[in-house]
Amino acid sequence: MSIALPSKTVFITGCSSGIGRAAAKLFQRNGWKVVATMRSPEQETELKKLDDTLVLRLDVTDQASIDSAVQAALTKFGHIDVLVNNAGYALMGAFENASEEQIQRQFDTNVFGLMRVTRTLLPHFRARKIGLIINVASMAGRLPIPFMSVYNGSKWAVQGFSECLTYELAPFNVQVKIVEPGAVDTAFFGRSGDRDNSSGVSAYNAQMSEQFPVIDKTGPGGSTSEDAAAVIFRAATDGKGTLRYSVGKDAKVLLSARKVLPDRVFLPMIGWSLSPDIFSRFGKLFYKT
Ligand SMILES: NC(=O)c1ccc[n+]([C@@H]2O[C@H](COP(=O)([O-])OP(=O)(O)OC[C@H]3O[C@@H](n4cnc5c(N)ncnc54)[C@H](OP(=O)(O)O)[C@@H]3O)[C@@H](O)[C@H]2O)c1
Questions:
Q1: CATH for 9-204+223-250?
Q2: Residue 176 in contact with residue 169, Cβ under 8 Å?
Q3: Ligand 1: which residues within 6 Å by Cβ?
């Protein structure tokens, strides 16, 4: 006689495309109940057709939408086992060119949004004395990508926030894990990116016009959303106390290098490796060209 084990529920933000969407599909295929949240669920068709998948509106900058999504998820599935904080985007360009509003929005989404969703689910996790929070940070949360300083800052914040949370949540059996993708071929490099450098400072134009084409080659040549989703799924199911999970050869190699090289070697090395000439010769070590 086989006894059906109660299936687990995952709650994911940013499921309209890319990594979040691939993760929603992967968990569902593996028998999980999936709460796939997004800003515009009215545009979603595919995920709505999947069994045990609840598609809900959630904008991480809107607490009311978070409250109502969490409530609807609990009403439907009774409990949530894993939260995947995935929603995010990148502000790209010279820091001096970014407007106050762009900087605020970057942190409001990538950092405060992630904190809002986490805080909304914590009472549930504490009450059940079990829970897992998987924060999708980035390799850019531990190493610099030129002309992405505000994005880097936001992901650095996610890393520090996540590490600190592990202490206060451990007594409640709530675990925190960090997924660190390198470049992944998603809308991150296209419609999701904010490249409005219209603040009027032209001093950086020459540098940016060299750097952006290099950055734009990494995405399409990098990992797939499915690769990243597989790592998130592993983090959710391996039962280990591991804190960090990287995605892609670029993240694995560069984050390992970061651990052993002093800043005076590592920082110039990143700038050098992303210069157009060097990238065109050696980029193929990490990226499909
Ligand atoms: N792709 C990479 O190379 C890469 C590398 C490292 C880390 N990451 C991280 O991976 C995560 C997923 O990005 P992706 O690569 O899969 O890019 P993506 O395809 O652009 O997906 C980003 C998702 O975030 C959602 N989102 C943006 N702002 C939101 C908000 N205020 N509230 C709720 N959802 C919001 C987007 O929704 P809409 O459709 O409504 O815009 C979309 O569903 C991000 O946190 C990103 O920083 C990506």
A1: 3.40.50.720
A2: yes
A3: 13-14, 16-20, 38-40, 58-61, 86-89, 109, 113, 136, 138, 181, 183-184, 186-188, 192, 219
**pLDDT for residue 241 is more than 80:** yes
- State which of 25, 46, 66, 86 you would mutate to test the pocket of ligand 1, scoring each by most atoms of that ligand within 8 A of its C-beta: 86
How many angstroms separate the alpha carbon of residue 150 from the centre of ligand 1? 15
How much is the average pLDDT of 210-224? 93
- Return the active site residues: 151
pLDDT at residue 197 in the model = 85
- pLDDT tier for residue 212 given thresholds of 50, 70 and 90: very high
CA distance 261 to 247: 21
Under the banding of pLDDT at 50, 70 and 90, the label for residue 199 is confident
Q: State how far the Cα of 132 lies from the Cα of 234, in Å rounded to an integer.
A: 12
Contact criterion met (CB below 8 Å) for 102 and 85? no
Confidence of residue 198 (pLDDT cuts 50, 70, 90): confident
Which residue's alpha carbon is at the smallest distance from atom 8 of ligand 1? 138
State the CB neighbour count (10 A cutoff) for residue 174.
Answer: 23
Q: Where are the domains of the chain?
A: 9-204+223-250
